[in-house]
């Protein structure tokens, strides 16, 4: 039995793997999903169903479009200012980690980024809370979950300017109020599907106001008009996203998975706080329910614990190099039994190494 | 038995489907290829092997980089001028179809496109041959195979300016001399792998000369420096490309598949020319060995033939709306037995409908 705590591309439900595997062999009349035309009625059905699943699961209000694009969040770092930031204008950014920082760096090609707050000096181990967003900002951008540091921003910051959010690593993990956002984007490879797909949810009325001429593939309006099929979409990734979102729906949707995710996170953080060998790395009130970062009180025990975990079938527990220690990513598809197994492992390790 | 003549995403070898299906269930130690970290040694091995396969199969000279990107050829329509065309300068384009035209349209965001020749007035049913490429062009761009019209440009046009080629639908189908090109790009979904992957082969020395500040994800140099892993790559699509290129290698490589492709094309064109009911749609000397377009002498027989083909398990034979009639796409993975089956079908239909 293996437990995949990897930060992404990450575990998806076993039944999704089975269904996807079968569709690679035979999706329809003996044809593989990999050889289906994206213009076939069958794939058009997949696209329609996947779109509907995103809308239903997140309760997307009317006036918003759901897009399936390529290039990951990194491409959105450029597409957002390209589409939303008029020449020479300023957008407000909250700097909560390396990914927020990468988003900030892409703004310079289109205008200015105003970093309204940053926790960089504390190695991003908390979410800044006291800051103001200038009302003349073209938009306010933040990262809702910081995979590297294990911090998460749960309450949408209040502002009068359009809110843009990189939700790559916590979309579909908890209930959100989409109406509070003007644009949400997410690389699919955590809670949506496999790598190679990006989901964008955009309020139609904010588009077309930058005054900038935008190449077709970088223009949200072009993709809206094309129903995410302006060009050949990543057929298989969208199909697997459909399977995975159907799994989520069958589990009771986002509200139900949120309960499970919180239960998983609470159990694991409780053990980190209780266990004499481990400690958390970030501010308790900002602890992510997706990525649980922890280190050892005695750094010399890190290698032995890593080895112990590896020998027992635990994958992907190594922390990011900029934080060190360990990171347990506990996305939607990670079963609570894997979390309990990890807790058992930590307790067993404590027994062995108690001073 | 089904015969998939679809124009793309298209048929891949059956053994590739089997191997890909298995890897979705169990790629390594019970983990799916869909849940593998792109930073894992296993996937780094996949990336290295796929890169080597492209280089070996196409005999890519030193001084060139092979990149695996997202966004399809359509994204390249913009990335090419963004990276290669200095502000206000002109690039030469050969207009041989709708895709060439789409590439031309994206140039205006970065400079000017000079259409050196076009076969638009003839609905792109031939490849223009008499034209000159101004020596002060930043580059010359052409489409080597035009899927919609069934035309193909076999000899690289001679010019002193850098040559850029959209090889989406004939890359890996016949031997090419990469040293004659400065940049080759191809959406993967014909002879390389599934949709959601773009292969770029670029001569390193032509980069960094546009004088333009380029967003990271749109800058070839960033992707070269990142080894196509500046951000999360489309893991599964690259893995399937590796399987497919290994299949091609095992068949004897590009020179061997070229013989087979030519045999398939010759057999089918011979039948089109012989059969009293059918006729080809484009100039004989420009006939593509990948997409064979044909119509019926009597248009009233088109629906009955389409129905007859459908009843006999033939998929994807419908011609593009701008040409009409039929299109048999006979990419690498389409077995010659499927071509023979189509020829038999055409002969059987002729017997039934002989006047």
Quick tags:
homodimer; 355 residues; alpha/beta; Aspartate Aminotransferase, domain 2; Aspartate Aminotransferase, domain 1; 2 domains; seven-stranded mixed beta sheet; three-stranded antiparallel beta sheet; 9 helices; 35% helix; 17% strand
Instruction: Tell me roughly what share of residues is in helical segments of chain A.
Output: 25-40%
Mean model confidence by pLDDT of chain A: 97
Poorly predicted tracts of residues of chain A = none
CATH topology of the largest domain in chain A: Aspartate Aminotransferase, domain 2
CATH class bucket of the largest domain in chain A:
Alpha Beta
- In total, how many domains does the architecture of chain A comprise? 2
Task: Please write the string of helix (H) and strand (E) elements of chain A.
Answer: EHHEHEHEEEEEEEHHHEEHEEH
Quickly give the structural class of chain A: alpha/beta
Rg of chain A, Å, rounded: 21 Å
- Roughly how many Å apart are the termini of chain A? 31 Å
Number of strands of chain A: 14
Strand content of chain A: 15-25%
SSE blueprint and pairings:
2 copies of one chain form a homodimer.
Chain A: E1 3-4, H1 14-25, H2 41-57, E2 64-69, H3 72-84, E3 90-95, H4 98-107, E4 112-118, E5 140-143, E6 145-146, E7 151-152, E8 163-166, E9 183-187, E10 198-203, H5 220-225, H6 235-250, H7 254-274, E11 278-280, E12 291-296, H8 302-311, E13 314-315, E14 326-329, H9 336-353
Helix pairs in contact in A: 1-6, 2-6, 3-4, 7-9
